[in-house]
Amino acid sequence: MNSNDIHGPVSDDFARVNDLIFAQLSSRVPLVEKIGHYIVSSGGKRLRPLLVLLTSRALGYPGQGHLKLAAVIEFLHTATLLHDDVVDTSDLRRGKPTANANWGNASSILVGDYLYARAFQVMVSLDNMPVMDVLSAATAEIAEGEVMQLTNARNPDLNEDQYMAVIRSKTAMLFQAATHAAALLGSASVRDKEAMRDYGLHLGLAFQLVDDVLDYSGDVAEMGKNVGDDLAEGKCTLPLIQAMKVCSEADRQLIRQTIRKGGLENLERICQIVKDSGAINYTLNKAREQAELATRCTDVLAPSPSKNSLLALTELAVSRSV
Fold first, then answer.
1. pTM higher than 0.85 for the full model?
2. Which CATH architecture has domain 3-319?
């Protein structure tokens, strides 16, 4: 199933959400609108709002609140991107210069703050306390995940469990919040709500695991960011953790030193070590396990085009690298 087919069941809703996002970006401060429009127009797939729309429709939600919820999720995600790029000193996002590369760190942080505030304004208008509870808790946990990642930077002793805790909070939590909150909008059963909550979590983990593989085996055109960004920032991701378990002592020390130092001086050699060690396949297999768990969560859903799209997203999560 291609991207158009995945969007097909909710294409009208998706277009309405896109219009709503831009309408909600209005501000009396021109720079807020300029940066906001720049980043939300920068080629993102709107995957997280898509999850809101597909989940709500797959569960038979008859209302319109899912449109606002999808916009909220996109604003939360966009705010984290603005802040992430400042923290990571990134200069490329989705194949384009980052907002901080164009307008500086201060402007990016402040507009990110505005988007968080705007998200909560729209969220309040939903008048749904369970949804607000899920989204506010997720926002706090995502921030904790960012701090966890920051404190783990340049730490070559990070283990797999610690790594999984970081990506669960930093990345998978917003996927989980999108599908869980969407399920809470309607009259879904407790079983269905829990299943869709878990679907989002496992899908988010699968996507992040593959993203971390692509940092050592992808290319700029496919990723929309520079190959080796994680290594340059001293991030110890699963491909490196696994490679250090099985490679030679000399290679292990090279990886450890590079994590501590950061930079791209040893990128080519470390990419080769990661590939030769089997760490790429190891990490991809972990991603496939998460995608399979996500697939099983959809067993609670009745057959529908939206369910088919949710299943297709689990395949897309792991096929981006092959």
1. yes
2. Orthogonal Bundle (1.10)
